[in-house]
Amino acid sequence: MTDPFKWAIVTTMAYVVPRKNGSWEIRETRTTPDGPRSRTLVSFRELSDEVIAQAQDRAEKPIDPDQLRQAALHAGAPLEQSRADRAAAQLLEQLSMGREPRRALRRLLADAVRDQDGGLSDAAQAAQEWVAATPQERGKTLVELLRLGDALPKRRRPDRSEFPGFGHA
To answer: Where are the domains of the chain?
Structure first.
């Protein structure tokens, strides 16, 4: 009797991978008699609801949008921001450059934010500049901070500790 699963093609999962040109792909893995194979469901620059819908239409197995977003975040792919997030990020970017909206709009914005959140915390005010930063800008800053940490002088340890060793306890 022949094995009925010897010729079966089984779809196992969808995942996100980067491409050399800066775009991203959602791929689907399939197990075939010749071993695992993958096929591209859709290419994208930012993962959006439309991209997820296209991938779901082309996939052989149902794709969970939340799991796909998590896979995209894990791979480092950019997610599409909502219009409100884009507008807020652009406003914060302008504010960090010293450009402010006229007084009436500032009051309206401040009142709207206060009504929503109960006011901005010190941490939120300090983070305003970073909300609009790109991953490349954040990465560059991280590298600079790590280099700064490496450049700090190392504290010289005394030859003997003032505390008794473990053997004396």
So the answer is: 10-75, 83-134
